[in-house]
Design brief:
The protein is α+β, with helices and mostly antiparallel strands. The chain contains five helices and six strands; from the N terminus they run H-E-H-H-E-E-E-E-H-E-H. The chain has a three-stranded antiparallel beta sheet with strand order 1-3-2. A three-stranded mixed beta sheet has the order 5-4-6, with no helix packed on it. A hairpin with a 2-residue loop joins strand 2 and strand 3. Helix 1 crosses helix 3 and helix 2 crosses helix 3. The longest helix is centred in the N-terminal third of the chain and has 15 residues. The chain is flat. Bound molecules: zinc ion (ZN) (2 copies). The site of one zinc ion (ZN) has 7 residues, from helix 5.
């Protein structure tokens, strides 16, 4: 029963986070051990409740209940969720051109966040 409770707790943490979390973030937030976190992540990935991607040799986990893209600031490394998705036409174009069927997409934008952009302007002066 403890396994289920830990798993539910870890799922809730990922579900309520708007940004992707690393296993270490989840370990800290759930106050459980890393092996417990990995066991839960493995189950949640297998059952499709969460999705993951790797960046800079680290895996990040996010909820699959709502479609979203992400932006990561290359300076402060903060993630930002993006809920606008305008790529239906692009997908249709690719499907026609490449004779493929696209089932899903994952988009990660990289650049400078508003705060770092502002800081850059200040530094320039
Ligand atoms: Zn930033
Ligand atoms: Zn999208």
């Amino acid at each position: 029963m403890r396994t289920t409770r830990n798993r539910d707790n870890i799922f809730q943490i990922i579900e309520t986070s708007s940004v992707p979390l690393s296993a270490y973030d989840i370990e800290k937030l759930s106050k459980t051990s890393l092996p417990t976190v990995y066991r839960a992540l493995d189950y949640l990935l297998r059952t499709g409740q969460i999705k993951s991607f790797s960046l800079h040799q680290c895996s990040y986990y996010y909820s699959s209940s709502e479609h979203k893209h992400f932006f990561i600031c290359s300076k402060c490394n903060h993630f930002f969720p993006i809920y606008d998705c305008f790529i239906e036409e692009y997908e249709k174009h690719l499907q026609r051109k490449m004779k493929i069927q696209i089932q899903e997409h994952f988009i990660l934008f990289k650049g400078l966040c508003p705060k770092c952009l502002q800081q850059q302007e200040v530094d320039k002066r």
